[in-house]
Amino acid sequence: MSQPAGEFAFIARHFRSLAGPGALALSDDAAVFMPPAGRELVVCADAMVAGVHFLPDDPSYDIGRKLLRVNLSDLAAMGAVPLGYLMTVSVPPDLPSDWFEGFSAGLAADQATYGLSLLGGDTTSTTGPLVLSLTILGHVAPGEAVRRNGARPGDGVWVTGTIGDGSLGLACLQGELDDPTGFLADRYHVPQPRLGLALSRLVHAAIDVSDGLVQDLGHLCRESGVGAVVEATLVPASDAARVAGAAWLERRLTGGDDYELLLAVPADAEAILLRAAAAAGVALTRIGTFETGPARVRVLAANGSELVFRSPGWSHVSDAFGVRG
User: How far apart are CA 109 and CA 247, in angstroms?
Assistant: First the structure.
């Protein structure tokens, strides 16, 4: 990490223990490492802003884990293996110094879980809110990174896990919904990146569901030049989401923060993919079909009528002020 005078102790206290061999003990302005032989690098980045991507009283331990996991989810959608990450933090003056103890502990726990380490980054001060940005590096076999632009008419629309828990978890934390077991809040705080699925030769396209199922499926449709139809009754729900009831269906399908994978799967690969998912302990559900036609998503109710939502999901422009969900 770049280290202006006075920041050496901060870096050493909170981040040096997270550094891997390529980070050079965070004492230089760059990392030096050798990617795995014969592999292509995959690089992506996500930022989290206090008051937009997390609540002021969210535990810093969970914020560290979420920051890493939302980036790991992007790697999972491309079928990539994690390698390491760079991180930038912009710190407001009123943030307690011990906040980063929990934050770095959360990162350390997930580094051990997912097998990667910190390579470097930067620390700055800010007069605005706390800003956390992470750039993650992964690797894939040459030519096997899964893209968003390969969905074809007739492919099934499949999702991992359950949909809507993260958004309902935010509603619980904001006092709009009961969460007696804490399950929904935990799903909001700590996503489960679906790493380890061998996607490259089984799916035509993939994306992780971060901005809402309907909106992210729309991204696949636009990039691939196809439409999609989803049956709302097939979208998998957790027990806690089912208790919330039908009144929360729109929030589940458009709220975001799921970090599940949304896949375009050809019929001849379905059985193989289901076996691979079962071996990885990941639930996988078909919820619809890609179709010829305009690049739009149609969500059908049980009676076949098309559901109309106020918004398909989170917008990084129009929703930039206020906690997402």
Answer: 37
* CA angle, 207 then 249 then 265, to 5°: 30
What is the pTM assigned to this prediction?
A: 0.88
**Tokens of residue 293, six digits:** 């036609």
C-alpha distance from residue 87 to each of 67, 83, 112, 202 (Å): 10, 14, 17, 33
Closest to 10 (Cα-Cα) out of 113, 123, 170, 90: 123
Domain spans of the chain? 8-140, 156-300
Average pLDDT per 10 consecutive residues for the chain, totaling 325 residues: 53 62 57 82 93 91 97 96 93 90 95 91 89 95 93 98 97 95 96 91 95 96 97 97 95 95 97 93 97 96 94 54 44
- Write the CATH number of the domain with boundaries 156-300: 3.90.650.10
Beta bridge partners of 46: 134
Burial of 110 (0-12, 13-18, 19+ CB in 10 A): buried
CATH of domain 8-140: 3.30.1330.10
What value, to the nearest 5°, has the Cα angle with vertex 318 and ends 193 and 60? Answer: 40
DSSP labels for 220-284?
A: HHHHHT-EEEEEGGGS---HHHHHH-GGGHHHHHHS-----EEEEE-GGGHHHHHHHHHHHT--E
